[in-house]
Amino acid sequence: MLDSLVTSKTRIKLLLKFFLNQETQAYLRGLAEEFGESTNAVRVELNRLTEAGFLTTRDDGRTKLYQANPKHPLFPELHSLVKKYLGIDQLIERVLSRLGSVKLAFITGDYASGKDSGIIDLTIVGNIDRNYLNELIEKTERMIHRKIRVLVLNDEEFERLKHQFTLGNSLIVWNESEIILQQFKASA
Length: 188
What we know:
Elements: H1 2-5, H2 9-19, E1 25-27, H3 28-35, H4 39-51, E2 55-60, E3 63-68, H5 75-86, H6 88-94, E4 100-108, E5 119-128, H7 130-144, E6 147-153, H8 155-161, E7 171-175, H9 178-187
Parallel strand pairs: 5-6
Antiparallel strand pairs: 1-3, 2-3, 4-5, 4-7
């Protein structure tokens, strides 16, 4: 879908990297190494996205860090488009909304950092029917053509382990209340 709209594979990788999780920051050489492409090819696309206002830059010593510009008027649409491309919108709609008492759900791992590795690591906090969860995940995996690994935590387990999750490396996809989100942010 996205690859028929955007013909540059490097640009698609950059859109995934920066617009899935707006906290993601990266520099040119790191991106070139991650994508397995020349720094020139990545630089050209970074310059185009920066000139269009989709990315912001800041100097970090002798390197330039790039990050999505959440103030850009098209940021919400690009964020939504990237989630649809990866199937995260269907994951939320099909799995999380039907499970019962889900207080918080977030993606960690490659997808949270904008890499399409084919495996979505999902952490769910709440009381849910695990058998039903397995059924929903199996159906959703077939639809989005990606593997979903799930960690389910109750409130006590999350409280004990939340320091291991960082907000910058997690993509929150569901939160029941702002209080839980604030607790998560406080642990980061």
